[in-house]
User: Fold this.
Amino acid sequence: MPWVELPHTADAGLEIKASDAESLITESAKALYSFIFGEFLETSKSQSGEEYVVELDCIDLLELFVSWLNELLFIYEVKGKIFLPENVEIDLQGVKLLARGTLQDAPRPVRAVKAVTYGGAEIKSEPIWKFRVYLDL
Amino acid sequence: MALKRLDHVRWMLEKDFKAGMRVTGLIYGDSYIIQGLEEEGALEQVANVACLPGILKHSYAMPDIHWGYGFPIGGVAAFSMEEGIISPGGVGYDISCGVRVMLTFLDEDEVASRIDELAAAIFSKVPCGVGSKGALKISEAELLEVLKHGAAWAVKKGYGEREDLECIEDGGKLPHADPSAVSRKALERGKPQLGTLGSGNHFLEIQVIDEVYDENVARQLGLNLGQVTVMIHCGSRGLGHQVCDDYIKVMLRAMNKYGISVPDRQLCCAPLKSEEAKSYLGAMQAAANYGLANREVIGQLVRDVFSRFFPKTDLKLLYDVSHNIAHIEKHEVDGKLMDVCVHRKGATRAFPPGHPSLPEKFRQVGQPVIIPGSMGTESYILVGTKRGMEECFASTCHGAGRVMSRRSAMKDEQADTVLKRLEEKGIKVMAEQIRTVREEIPEAYKDVSRVVDVVEKAGISRKIARVRPLAVIKG
Assistant:
């Protein structure tokens, strides 16, 4: 499993690893959805869903990764859907993200996440890409 | 030991604990509460807050302190309007998360025999749980009115009573709310959720007053031994979360612009005199108004249910107070009365008797303070004091404070028996998800009685009455 849950007194943390920035975006989404829905079902990819695009323009990579997960929370809360990214492009210089994919019906949640925070958040690219983040529950 | 003991309930975190601290930390707690704080991240967070520009007197932590994000939970900090800052991380995502107590004119015997059906009826009437949608269908124009007028909107629409407003902090409406500073995304999140409890540690309880500590003040507040009460704990839902997230982005950019650096990005902030701060204050007050309206609407839903069961009774609001908020207030600093911006993150305002901001009915006794305990344990009603006003910007604790992570609580053997144990104590529990009940086991929290004893011994607020739960409703 490329992610683990980190302990926190009131909330919870996630640490996600991947070989490159684009994979880390995809794995971060899976980690967040697994946390909320209990288990993330890869099979949901086979359903056809509405095409959707997420674009982000940030000041640095940490903001980009935190904003990405907050965007997924927004989509879930407002549309009741999960966003499955199929094509992810990151401009590391300009700190921009373009994720294309589809919206799928969300399973029944087992936990609520209010927000993805910057408290204790960290992004590293060496020796592998790693994103640590804490969730406000 | 990083902390220096000042007396039996006060501890000082010296400035040499961390480079950049502008003031010392002042932590309220007994040895039970202080034990274990150093292993957690909470002390570091008290120190981080002490590094913020324009902070006055101390970085405070109430006895329900625990590790949060940015500010610790239980954190209080006041900032100079001239040199100080405002930080969305000092308010939190759940803006105006707060608690209210409503008083019935029923005693325990009248309610106990019907508690199961009463709890079931409230559970079915008040939407709760993850992603729950409200019983109210409002237009975007109406949502903007909610953001502008808070609980007064709810009363105008028949969701509440006019006399409720003077029993709500700020009269139920923060005056400088600016709905135009609230993003479209926040409006989208807030529109379907008005009148919902949410999940996590939010709850609704039917309770009974089982101990009175000051009969004179209790009488003036309308509290009697054996009287049934209702407590509601919730906030501004997705709208508040989105406002916080939006303005963290604004503040991250503002810090570059104003040359501010902070030890934790969640503390990002802007000078109080800046346009960014004004915009955040307007949006935060709008979100707070949503939170106040949310609790007012839920209060009316509860009234509707009670009136079906007990047609001759009415529920009167004792008080409604937010514990995640920033206020501009007048305080004395170095002998001078000045406007300051007080951030309370998991902490409650507690104005003393005689404070000019209090409505006439509380002027003699002081502002009521509501301290919910953990699920199945007692909660407390207190009042503010002069010492709290002078020492810690009229602030006190907000609850019990967690000591065990949700994950550990789930694994704890006590979780398996929690429902049975509460039933044995005569407490009916209704929850949208059993997981929430397991995560919220009483053992996951500090002993609320010890937390409240600390603020009383410190003289920063005063116990008036204790309530114990008869039924608990959770998301």
Q: What stands out?
A: The interface with chain A takes residues 40-42, 66-70, 73, 89, 92-94, 130-131, 185, 188-189, 198-200, 238, 241-242, 244-245, 248-249, 252-253, 256, 264-266, 268, 402-408, 433, 435, 475 of chain B (CB under 8 Å). DSSP finds 17 helices and 19 strands in chain B. Chain B has one domain: 3-474.
